[in-house]
Amino acid sequence: MKAALKSRTPRRLPPLALAALCLVGWGPDVAIARETWFTGEGSFQLGRIVHADTSIQRYDGNFMRATSAQLAIETKFSEALRMRAGMGVVERHFLDAGIGVNDRNPTIYAPYFVEASLTWSFLRESALRPSLIGGYFPYNYNPDAKNLGLYLLRGPAYPGILVSGFETRDAQGLANTLGARVRLTTGPVEHDFILASEVELYPLFDLSPAYVATWRHGRLLRLGAGINLHHYLPVDSRITNPDTLAYDGSDEDPFGNGPYSRTNIYVDFSDTAGGRAPDTTFLSFRGVKLMANAAFDVKELFGGLPALGPEDLKVYGEIALLGLDRRKAYRELYGDLRQRMPVMVGFNLPAFRALDHLSLEVEWYGSRVKDDLKRFQATTSAFPSPIPVNNAGAIAVDTRRDNLKWSLHASRVLAGHVRLSAQVANDHTRPGGTYTSPPAEWQGLFSRPRDWYWMTKIAYFF
Known about the structure:
5% of the residues lie in helices and 39% in strands. It is mainly beta. It has a domain at 113-242 and 283-445: Porin, CATH 2.40.160. A 16-stranded antiparallel β-barrel has the order 2-3-4-5-6-7-8-9-10-13-14-15-16-17-18-19. Strand 15 and strand 16 form a beta hairpin. The protein is globular and about 75 Å long. The chain starts with a strand and ends with a strand.
């Protein structure tokens, strides 16, 4: 959100900084054309899990509450150079997975980056209108998505586990990409070249080159497509693309129990007749992700409808393919290509200007992989691995029953500074840590059609 507070007082840069800027062509006018905006937001959100059962803990009836505050500064050094930096903190509590006299868990505080980036619009007279942004910045190639979707840059390739939830940073304009993005424009098409460093899931700090193209025909139609070479530039290839057994013996299995007891290899015991050794495939975190998305505004066919809001009657969607490797080991672990293709369709219901949007999103994903990111966390009891979490025994879930996800999100801005929002959904929300049962913290809460939650939020921003 743009700030209500703006400082236009000219401020001169230190001599060395000014000289450096002049050397790269931004000119001496940098010292006298400076503008500064301050932006901030404070929010409170409250919701409740109506029904959820991870087979480890029961979360029915758990309230979800969070309070946050953030502050950022944006400085315009010149028409070509801008800087934005800010931080925030959120206060929340662990979900308890039970309701009782003592079932209340401690409050935790988590700082986060609003943004820390530098944007340079160079060669501004060029028809390509190139720009470069670097640092930790927000990036969203599908601005219509409110919850589901955004598959190209969220979550791993192997296994293709999806990420979503109530007003995540990807959909809220908070920093979600560490690295750099170059944008070029050719007529109605925007070309984004992205180099992103992994900061959330193991293996950390690997670089992923990605490309996204977006074509627009006014407000009527938007088409987009992209490719992500996920973890293709590893910091340590021995971790991302292992080709030998682990030094600590964690890959060894003297009982021959199959792939789930191993960390980075899949062993095929189907053809060991005549004393032949089983076929071994070394698995990789690296994978190719493909994406296509579209949005269509029905109102534009009629020249706009005054009774409806700008977002009403818009139809949008996204489809992706998570991982292209079709070798037997990958088919056995992750399924065929059809089982690696999430599809999301969204529709903005008519709100007649009472709301800024009322968005219904539906997702179908026929993955047979358990919705659990625990394998991407290094703990004392588990080794990070691209092999899916074991879906057997007491913690098993029916992965066929969680294929369908849905979300209904509503929002309204009042008086230019207060935003009210609400959501009901069955999505990929995770506990994010449980005080009494850490093994459950990375597993998706909603694995059956009857599972759902509601959430509300009020925010003041300037």
